[in-house]
Predict the structure.
Amino acid sequence: MNYYKWLLLFICCVCLACGQPRDQSSELTVYTSRHYAADDSLYAEFQRETGTTIRVVKNKDDTLINRLLTEGAQADADVLITADAARLHRAKNLGLLQPIKSKKLDQLVGESLRDPEHHWYALTLRARIIVHRKDFDTGALRNYLLLTRRSLVASKLTEPGPNREELDLILRCATRVPDHGKLTPWRIKVVQGQARRALGQVWRDIFERSHPDASAEQLNFECNRPYRAPLMLIVSTKIENQRIPAWEQILSGGAVCQNVLIAATSLGYHAQWLSEWPNYDTEVKEATRLSVGDYFLGFIYIGTASEVPVERVRPQIEDIVSWYDEGETAHGTTPA
């Protein structure tokens, strides 16, 4: 078996667990986000040598993963090829991959370049050269994320959402905020899976009581409101004492919400920080066991973007920033 054939076999080892069983000798379906002509040459070489037809479905990584989630057992894909190992790891966690053991693959691919449980193997056709400029200020890169972060409406957020490891990271980042008095005056409630349906039913019932004329369509929307994204975080205050002004404790909670957005973005997800009517409803507060003196700071929806968010108009710095002049008086005027 020649080099090219082994590379194709290499690709085929990212096998999908959700597809329907069928005669693999006649056709092999590959879901791939790669768009290189070299890949097409490998497919053609494999077909010539084995007689197996290669059917290629090309799209973006997350789109392909979402398609597999939607199709479930009806998926016709045999192989998934992504642009990075992180998405393969996510596909594994979602139960989309099945393991395969091959001594030849283990021989060709180093241990650090394959999944420990043999769910995926790394693949490349060329060397990647990493160039590092030693005198470059890498600290400047930290600002790039903040300059490109953009919210996406909750209804445009789809599976997959953060896995448990990623969620733990988001939550740890969320708590690293200014906190006068070290009070931790905020709380975070995680809502995902079927818990979204249960919360949606509560919101629906409350909405129906306050809107007896609501249509079935409106009530159904309220029931599905928490279901708009794979994950929702409810951030609320937990005002601790009077020694630290309540307003400072609320501001600390607002910083928690912003850190959630930044952390989610850094992991490749999108999010939207919302309030909407549940944020201000007394019954919703009671149902969520929020104390009378506390507040919802927001409902943060997190998931994978189903479309690229469009940039919105941002304020001009000169319109919102002023520089304090040493000549200013207490009334904000400069003496003549």
